[in-house]
Amino acid sequence: MDTTHLEDIHNYRYHGEWIGTSGQPTEAQLGGIAKTGFRTVINLALHDDPRYSLPDEPGTVAALGMQYVHIPVQFAAPTLQNLADFCAAMDQHQGEMVWVHCAANIRVSVFLGLYRVIQLGWEPDSAFAPMRSLWTPNAVWSSFIASALEQPRGGTGCKAMSSSP
Q: For residues 7, 130, 165 and 122, what is the CA-based torsion angle, rounded to 10 degrees?
């Protein structure tokens, strides 16, 4: 797959066969994401700040023939329910090409790391390597990661999480 044009998207990362992540793409960049073969866009950012969101991302994504999933994660207060929703969306679209973004690929890097550890059984060092290439979590996010990793694993991994930390 040619991902050259995708490298212009803020904090772009390609994670192999089916996952691409980034900060907020422009409408034109969403077109490139669709042309590259991605079928689903998962957005973890909020829609309330024009600096970090598009006027109508759901409509733009739909017009490009992709599915849109919005899981608004408050940067200062991520919840285990947000993570459970993310894991469910990732599981639902596993095997198809999924693009996950937020404002700067910060929230995404944590959620993807947790998904890989909890749902896919990865070792934390490997699962969180993309996160470490982008940032060092602050106290809120470090606590959130620890809390998520300490949760009992009833049911199917992340899907068993439903309460806030």
A: 130
Place of tokens 């490997």: 126
Q: Provide the token pair at 156.
A: 């199917």
Q: Provide the pLDDT confidence category of residue 50 given band limits of 50, 70 and 90.
A: confident
Q: Is the dihedral of CA 158, 49, 26, 64 positive or negative?
A: positive
Reported as a single tens digit per residue, the pLDDT across 105-140 is 999 999 999 999 999 999 999 999 999 999 999 999
For residues 64 and 86, what is the distance between their CA atoms, to the nearest angstrom?
22
Structure tokens at 39: 């079928």
Structure tokens given for 42? 């998962």
Specify the amino acid at residue 162: S
